[in-house]
Specification:
Elements (H helix, E strand, L loop, with lengths): L12 H10 L2 H11 L17 H14 L7 H4 L2 E4 L15 H6 L1 H7 L3 E4 L3 E2 L11 E5 L6 H13 L3 E6 L9 H6 L13 E3 L19 E4 L4 E4 L14 H17 L3 E5 L21 H5 L5 H11 L7 E5 L5 H8 L8 E3 L2 H4 L9 H14 L7 E2 L9 H4 L8 H12 L5 E5 L20 H12 L4 H11 L36 H5 L5 H14 L2 H4 L1 E5 L6 E8 L2 E8 L5 E4 L12 E2 L9 E4 L4 E5 L2
Parallel strand pairs: 1-2, 1-13, 2-5, 5-9, 9-10, 10-11, 12-13
Antiparallel strand pairs: 3-4, 6-8, 7-8, 14-15, 15-16, 16-20, 17-19, 18-20
Helix pairs in contact: 1-2, 1-17, 2-18, 3-9, 16-20, 17-18
Length: about 625
């Protein structure tokens, strides 16, 4: 099994190629979509040595007038909606979603009952790595709009009581960032030590492994100064040198720039890799299986986080997410233990890793993962709860049953699970409709570079193309990136032009407009579930207790807070199932939530396929 909870960022095109060279294709795809890609973040460049006081003052005033009231630890009670900007709503007909498009849909987001929107990267980028290689993250990628568009979006969100979380990834920048351009111009550049360099006269640099490099070499020779620079990921993503206090201060100024605009949080992406020993001691035997462990938790990592907290986070009421932090719950706790004053919330990948690389998964494996992580954070710290994101297949296609007879019920069940567990729920856009994996006709329909390069390698090596395509259909990342299905008109109402990625053909039947009018739809069930969570703190803070742990089809648990106790019963099965309620549990009244019209009362629950019920207990 891959170390799936280490970091999803190692899903690179070249990692993908390596995986297919050494494993069965469907196993490799499972690891690829499990791990995903990093989001690079950069700043405006060498000229930004000091803050623009006027701009900062103006931004602060804007933040004061548009930000929504936030109590301490507000992020524990919010519901996060992950929004993939490229695929949400196009406003100008170029086939690419944009900020104005998002702004036009803010009323929809408000009606969903979510409290926080997490945007995938929108910063200026040359797009070597799907826009995650950032050349200036005080600016917006032109395809998405302008800073003025962003300001309007943020103001519109705050006016509706919605909060905004943005990515902060500073393990590396783009090689087109102004810092790196200056750094590579001369060995004496004041920006030279913003990055890691190895002079050629010292010989070959100590071996470091790169998932993105065709030779798996994390050192790239730069002829201009006859030196090598370090890149754990793409050669166009040189690693930033966090040993340099000037670099750290640049990052803190960038964070203040966005915080002063009034954003509500940062997702700290790949931060567990920023700490490196600049002497580069030998790391023998680095390979695909062990390099992530070797790079994790380098020297001074938590010193950096404590400094970041003192310098920036302690001055604002922000939500910070330690995405992928920690190789296990114990390490993850180091990032989010409140007494340590570092970050707020951990976001692990072990859950989405269940079933990756296979056509099925075992429910008990899923139970074990979520129960283990809940137990670790029962007394302190806080975690995210998720089953999908932009690097995973569609939730209902992997963990539910996307056949027409069961799609709606299983999508409702999965959303019920997300919204009744302890932790902050993360809901990926489109899952509130039960959007499914798409039906791509062939490799030409895919846009993901990992998929295309993987196909080319398998073809070149005379591999099993049908097996590769089978795995890609189930686990390919483009499944979750197809345009949002707004209505039954051309291109699902996403664009008047040609969409950057083809719309799922089932948009005629599965779309927001149709579901909004249907009280029994996945969408309206999602709204009921978000409303219930907001009304009942037992679903936010209540103790989680797993019941009937060995049952391969039923996931049942209680949530208890003070004198209030609820029972959640989920039939993860496309068959009717009977579940006997433990004698000490006494359900009372009508279900708080039920994805079927009825539930027969009694000592045993007769559950329909994928039925999900939330019951108050005496």
């Amino acid at each position: 099994m891959p170390h799936f909870f280490l970091r999803y960022s190692f899903c690179s095109p070249r990692w993908f190629l390596r995986a297919f060279a050494t494993q069965r294709p469907w196993q490799a795809i499972g690891q690829v979509v499990l791990l995903g890609m990093l989001i690079g973040l950069a700043s405006c460049g060498p000229s930004a040595k000091t803050e623009d006081k006027t701009a900062a003052t103006t931004a602060a005033k804007l933040a004061a007038t548009t930000s929504t009231a936030k109590k301490p630890d507000w992020w524990k009670e919010t519901i996060v909606y992950q929004l993939y900007p490229r695929s949400f709503q196009d406003s100008n007909g170029d086939g690419v979603g944009d900020l104005k498009g998002i702004t036009s849909r803010l009323d929809y987001l408000q009606r969903l009952g979510v409290g926080t929107v997490w945007l995938n990267p929108i910063y200026a980028s040359p797009n070597d790595d799907n826009g995650y290689d950032i050349s200036d993250y005080r600016q917006i990628m032109p395809e998405f709009g302008t800073i003025a568009d962003f300001d309007a979006l943020l103001a519109g969100m705050h006016q509706r009581g919605l909060k905004l979380v943005m990515d902060l990834v500073v393990n590396h920048s783009s090689d087109e960032h102004a810092w790196f351009k200056a750094a590579r111009s001369s060995r004496t550049s004041p920006y030279r030590d913003y990055y890691y360099w190895w002079p050629a006269e010292k010989g070959t640099p100590p071996a470091r492994y790169s998932t993105f490099d065709v030779k798996k070499n994390a050192w790239q020779y730069d002829s201009l100064t006859k030196s090598y620079y370090l890149h754990y990921f793409s050669k166009k993503q040189p690693d930033l040198n966090w040993n340099n206090p000037k670099l750290r201060q640049e990052v803190y100024r960038i964070m203040r720039f966005w915080a002063d605009k009034g954003i509500d949080g940062f997702r700290m992406d790949a931060f567990q890799f920023v700490a490196k020993d600049p002497s580069f001691p030998p790391m023998a035997g680095l390979n695909e299986q062990n390099f992530a462990n070797a790079y994790n938790h380098g020297p001074h990592l938590h010193d950096y986080l404590k400094e970041l907290n003192r310098e920036v986070l302690s001055k604002y009421n922000l939500m910070t997410v330690a995405e992928g932090a920690g190789r296990n719950p114990q390490e993850a706790m180091l990032f989010v233990d409140p007494a340590r004053k570092e970050l707020d919330m951990t976001y692990h990948f072990e859950g989405v890793g269940v079933g990756s690389g296979a056509d099925t998964y075992k429910l008990n494996d899923l139970k074990q993962v979520f129960t283990k992580w809940d137990r670790a954070f029962a007394q302190k710290g806080w975690q995210a709860i998720d089953l999908g994101n932009h690097d995973q297949p569609r939730m209902v296609s992997k963990f539910g049953d996307d056949r027409p007879a069961f799609r709606a019920a299983s999508a409702k069940l999965l959303n019920t699970f997300l919204l009744t567990m302890r932790g902050t729920p993360y809901c990926y856009n489109g899952d509130e409709l039960g959007m499914t994996n798409s039906k791509f006709a062939g490799i030409a329909d895919y846009r993901d570079v990992a998929a295309r390069n993987g196909y080319a390698l398998v073809q070149q090596q005379g591999g099993d193309i049908p097996a590769f395509m089978h795995g890609l259909a189930r686990f390919g990342r483009d499944n979750s990136r197809t345009p949002f299905q707004w209505n039954g008109t051309a291109n699902a109402g996403f664009t008047t032009g040609t969409p950057w990625l083809s719309v799922n053909p089932n948009y005629v039947a599965i779309n927001e407009a149709a579901q909004a009018k249907d009280s029994s739809s996945v969408l309206n069930h999602f709204r009921r579930a978000t409303a219930l969570r907001q009304q009942r703190n037992v679903l936010v803070y209540g103790q989680y207790t797993l019941l009937d742990a060995a049952n391969p089809h039923i996931w049942a648990y209680t949530r208890t807070l003070g004198g209030e106790r609820v029972l959640v019963v989920l039939n993860f099965s496309s068959e009717p199932r009977r579940w006997v309620v433990p004698a000490e549990l006494k359900p009372t009244g009508e279900p708080w939530l039920n994805n079927y019209p009825t539930l027969a009362p009694g000592p045993a629950l007769a559950l329909q396929p994928w039925q999900a019920v939330v019951l108050l207990l005496q």
